[in-house]
Design a protein that fits this description.
- With about 200 residues, the protein is of the alpha/beta class.
- It has 7 helices and 6 strands.
- β2, α5 and β3 form a beta-alpha-beta unit.
- It is globular and about 45 Å long.
- This is Osmotically-inducible protein OsmY.
- It holds the Pfam family BON.
- Keywords: Signal.
Length: about 200
């Protein structure tokens, strides 16, 4: 039997992880699937080292806890996503002061290199919007996995209120192709890339 290439294996692992996450989301068990992917499949396909993945998980846990425990921000839907110690801060708040406060609260979290504050001043995204965001994320991931010019395992996709954020260690033409793929998914209102160039 002909051996599969490393790229092919990584793409198949990515497809399995995407399918598991989507299935679990539909069953209301996204946390279980995400945890399994992070500890298993993700570590195989992720270009980050295991140490970097653990650092990112720790940053997310600590920063999200700070936001949730803040007496002024705890009622708002704010979220931190970390990739290679670059932090994406997203969500909705009623004013600029709250937006700045969110960044200030997480800024002293150990391990953070940069913060991309993408919190929007608007009303909170409802359940239907969150469901649509999950669908958009799954579609972007599937289209990335189907494209042979982009390694989908290098790109982390986050969708918030119709906006797609792309994180990862990606450079050159691959970054532009990934943006173009995401831009052409139905329901996407904007694509923001926060890629780090390959070392």
């Amino acid at each position: 039997m002909q051996q599969l290439s490393q790229t092919c294996l990584r793409r198949r692992f990515t497809q399995v992880a995407t399918a598991l996450t989507l299935l679990a989301t539909l069953n209301g068990c996204a946390v279980v699937a995400t945890g399994a992917a992070a500890l298993g499949v993700s570590s195989v396909t992720d270009p980050r080292t295991i140490g970097s993945q653990l650092d990112d998980q720790t940053i997310e846990m600590k920063a999200n806890a700070k936001l949730g425990n803040d007496e002024q921000l705890g009622e708002y839907r704010l979220r931190v996503v970390s990739y290679d110690q670059n932090v994406l801060l997203i969500g909705q708040v009623p004013n600029e002061a709250a937006r700045q406060r969110a960044e200030r609260i997480i800024s002293d979290t150990n391990g953070i290199d940069n913060i991309f504050n993408q919190v929007r001043i608007s009303s909170q995204a409802g359940l239907s919007t969150q469901t649509n965001d999950a669908w958009i994320t799954s579609q972007v991931k599937l289209k990335l996995a189907a494209n042979d010019k982009v390694d989908a395992s290098d790109v982390k996709v986050v969708t918030e209120n119709g906006e797609v954020f792309l994180l990862g260690i990606v450079g050159g033409d691959s970054a532009n192709i990934a943006v173009d793929i995401a831009r052409n998914v139905k329901g996407v209102t904007r694509v923001i890339k926060a890629f780090k160039a390959p070392r």
